[in-house]
Amino acid sequence: MTRPRAEVSPDTGDRGAAAPPTTGLCPAMSIHVLSALILLLVTTAMSVVMLLVLTSLKASRVVGVKEWRQANAIAVLALLLFAARGALPDLLTIEGANGLFLVTIALMYAGFRRHLGLPVQGARLLVGGLLTLGGVAAFHYGLDSIEVRTVSVSMFHGTLCLAIGASVPVSADARLRYPTLFTKVAALALGTAHGVRGLVYAIEAWMPGTFDAMPTYNLVFMALGTLALPALTLGAVMMANARILAAAAHAADHDHLTGAASRRAFSAFAEREHARAQGSGSPLALLLFDVDHFKRINDSHGHGVGDRVLREIVERTREAVREVDYCGRLGGEEFAVLLPDTDAAAALAVAERVRAALDTALEPVPAGQAVCYTVSIGVAMLEEGEALDGLMARADAALYKAKAGGRNRVVGAPALHPHGRALPVKAQD
Ligand SMILES: Nc1nc2c(ncn2[C@@H]2O[C@H](COP(=O)(O)OP(=O)(O)OP(=O)(O)O)[C@@H](O)[C@H]2O)c(=O)[nH]1
After folding, report:
1. Are the CB atoms for 273 and 339 separated by under 8 Å?
2. From ligand 1's centre to the CA of 295, what distance in Å?
3. Are 423 and 381 in contact (CB under 8 A)?
4. Which SUPFAM superfamilies does this chain map to (predicted)?
5. Which of helix, strand or coil describes residue 335?
6. Fold observed for domain 31-250
7. 254 exposed, middle or buried (CB, 10 Å; 0-12, 13-18, 19+)?
8. Positions of CATH 3.30.70.270 in the chain
9. At 289, is the secondary structure helix, strand, or coil?
10. Among 295, 297, 403, 409, which residue has the most ligand 1 atoms within 8 Å of its CB, making it the best to mutate?
11. How far is the CA of 277 from the centre of ligand 1 (A)?
């Protein structure tokens, strides 16, 4: 039984026996060849578009973008070579095009692995690629078989698609969940499609004529293949964008010197806690503190040492408070800690603990010269109906009193209302 064969394949460059029907426009060209050529050109155009999109991310320095860009650039070349089958020597349009297309998927894989901070097994990729290409050449110049060439190429592409799918974890982070889920599902689906394709061609190679409509099957696989690189690239772009957004949000929410919450993040957290406390009636305490005579530290030991003091202050403060307590740097040498569900007595105790932890010297001692520092702390309890600004202002006034009272001490803000949740006026020194 003679069987119709695929005439142009993006993975093998095959141009087998012509299969009817032919197009009305060009009698010499069958509908399958024309369809395959159109699919190749569409895929090429999509790779060019993806290349342009990825180029917009070049300056982002997101790890993986370089490999994804290279993959799409090489894919354009490979696809044009596939499309030039018949017009250029076979060595270019079969071995050359297939070799480049293997590099394309290998680069996509390497890009995802590097993006995720995972190792890339370069030696294995090289061996797998060379074996596959060797198979293509052997079943071209030796026993000429499009089917076996297709099985060989599909195995390499399928394995790497499945490996990409297995490498990408669905992130718990809301920003990354959709991009990672999309990439994982797309890679696993493409890997499976390559597997099915390899299986169909393996059966056809083993038992010729099993499938009557191979040219049509080939077109279906090609249509799926058209989506492969753009789908993987789309996932890559989404993952890169999510990472850029996450980095921007992290930079906006954290003080770059100390790692404490930025003023913006602290305000947002304070507003949420303020609304919660006003709604539930649970106590909310605010500690405002400022390094004593910090200018002297800078002037005597330099800004580098001053910076180290600020970093150490944040570390020690975090150790002195609970996980749920929120520490922010409001600016310069001024910090704040918000203590949810904390009553006045506990807030004063925490403030005293923080003060004692920060009545210390920088470690390790810089250049053999001890750098001692202390802080002054103002404490205020939120009162019913009080605005956040009011709470901040009362804590600030208490801090001012602590400074005026001699520094290195804790002062509680007086109550606004006689029966409000308030701290004693007395300084805790
Ligand atoms: N090293 C360093 N110094 C900073 C930073 N931000 C602000 N400062 C310095 O902090 C010092 C604050 O000085 P002052 O406002 O006079 O306060 P102080 O010397 O701590 O005095 P009191 O608050 O009254 O005890 C200034 O010298 C600022 O240059 C920073 O990020 N790093």
Report:
1. no
2. 5
3. yes
4. Nucleotide cyclase
5. strand
6. Rhopdopsin 7-helix transmembrane proteins (1.20.1070)
7. middle
8. 263-428
9. strand
10. 295
11. 33
Query: 333 C-alpha to center of ligand 1: Å?
Result: 5
**Is ipTM over 0.90?**
yes
C-alpha 314 – ligand 1 centre gap (Å): 15
Q: Closest residue (by CA) to atom 11 of ligand 1?
A: 295
Nearest atom, ligand 1, residue 257 CA: 31
Terminal CA-CA length for the chain: 101
**What are 359-417's pLDDT values in tens digits?**
999 988 777 789 999 999 999 999 999 999 999 999 999 999 999 999 999 999 998 77
CA 187, 190, 194, 199 dihedral sign is: positive
Is the pTM higher than 0.90? The answer reads no
CATH fold of 263-428, please? Alpha-Beta Plaits (3.30.70)
Q: Are 151 and 11 in contact (CB under 8 A)?
A: no
Instruction: Dump strand ranges (E) for 258-409.
Output: 284-291, 326-331, 334-340, 360-361, 372-373, 375-381
